[in-house]
Amino acid sequence: MPTISGVMTLQETDCTAVAGLLARFGLQLILLADGDEIPGTYWGAPEAGLSGEQLFARPDTPLHSVLHEAAHFICMPADRRASLHRDAGGEVAEEDAVCYLQIVLGARLNAAGWSRERLFADMDAWGYGFRLGSTRRWFEEDADEAQAWLRQRGLLV
Description:
Layout: H1 15-23, E1 28-31, E2 49-51, E3 54-57, H2 63-75, H3 78-82, H4 92-107, H5 116-126, H6 135-141, H7 144-152
Parallel strand pairs: 1-3
Antiparallel strand pairs: 2-3
Helix pairs in contact: 2-4, 4-7
């Protein structure tokens, strides 16, 4: 996936805050140098990569990508985490829950320039597809199943 102009990147936020958020869930942020290959990326650079308990990103990695891959890690059971490299797997219901959780996680960052509106716009620009045509509308009007999936697993209170 190519870099999308205007999307908030990791270098525009507080990496320490991002690393702290991920650490609460047992996930380690590995910040790579500009131009480095990103291990475990599903879509290719600059998108974040997952391998085991490590999330790999560069300064130009979109923040929504970091949050999305972190949400995959949080949502998957321990047996899948044990063999995790690149492909988080999961069913459609889990992917929807991941998208919902990435929005919830984003709200916990309180990063300068970051807002739920910015995240919605970044997700739309990347090409997330939702039945109602926009991330915001899906989150506000059509995410009941994703919320239920997360609540059932104790990931949303």
